[in-house]
Amino acid sequence: MSKLETNQVDPATGTTLTLGTSGDTITIPSGVTIANSGTATGFGGAMTPAFHANLSSNQTVSNNTDTKVQFDTEVLDTDGCYDNSTNYRFTPTTAGKYFVYSSLHCNANSANNFLLGTTTIKKNGSNEIYQQLDQRTTGNGYSSSVSAFGIVDMNGSSDYLESWGYVSSSGGTQKISGNGSTQYSLFGAYKIIE
């Protein structure tokens, strides 16, 4: 093995310098610092596809009925994998593990009643992550938030995620709160770098 000592290596032609060939291993010894002042590509991974959506206005739901939440406003959708107008689902095009979250602002719109609110993240129509909140309301229009989050393995072709809500109370109108300027209820996911 020979040793080359120099302060700079430039490509003879063009703008690409290649080190090694396919199958080779290039070792960087312990204690060596790599200082990058340019653009680094191909290292680590990307946390995409990713999306984040919220509910732009209140969605009235039937009492004691599991209902898909229609998150219609996209804040982020890196790869166009979230449908915010028809199915309200995330179908990532890259296989891997995804961190997914959903938070619902459940409203019973009635005083002194028990309010039960749940949020369920469903994968391919089946319950994957579930959280429940059960409390007594104290005033008209009183609402509470319930959140669910976790890691879901996706195949990158047909798997999809949806957020469903359930509101139960002994009176009033049940709804999932939404607003055009404040993100009361939200749903999102992003790929984890493995």
What are the main properties of this structure?
elongated, Jelly Rolls, 194 residues, single chain, 11 strands, mainly beta, 4-stranded antiparallel β-sheet
Structure description:
By secondary structure, this protein is mainly beta. It has a single domain, classed as Sandwich (Jelly Rolls), CATH 2.60.120. 0% of the residues lie in helices and 39% in strands. It is built from no helices and eleven strands. The strands form two sheets. Strands 1, 2, 4, 5, 8, 10 and 11 form a seven-stranded antiparallel β-sheet that branches. Strand 6 and strand 7 form a beta hairpin.
Topology:
Layout: E1 50-54, E2 59-60, E3 67-68, E4 73-77, E5 96-107, E6 114-123, E7 126-136, E8 143-154, E9 161-169, E10 175-176, E11 186-191
Antiparallel strand pairs: 1-4, 1-11, 2-10, 3-9, 5-8, 5-10, 5-11, 6-7, 6-9
**Strand content bin:** 35-45%
Poorly predicted ranges: none
CATH class: Mainly Beta
How are helices and strands ordered from N to C?
EEEEEEEEEEE
CATH architecture: Sandwich
Profile the largest sheet: 7 strands, antiparallel
Backbone shape = elongated
Q: CA-to-CA gap between the ends?
A: 35 Å
User: What integer value in Å does the Rg equal?
Assistant: 24 Å
Q: What's the overall average pLDDT, rounded?
A: 88
Query: Please, how many helices?
Result: 0
DSSP summary, beta strand count: 11
Number of domains: 1
SS content category: mainly beta
CATH topology name, in short, is: Jelly Rolls
In percent, how helical is the residue content?
Answer: under 10%
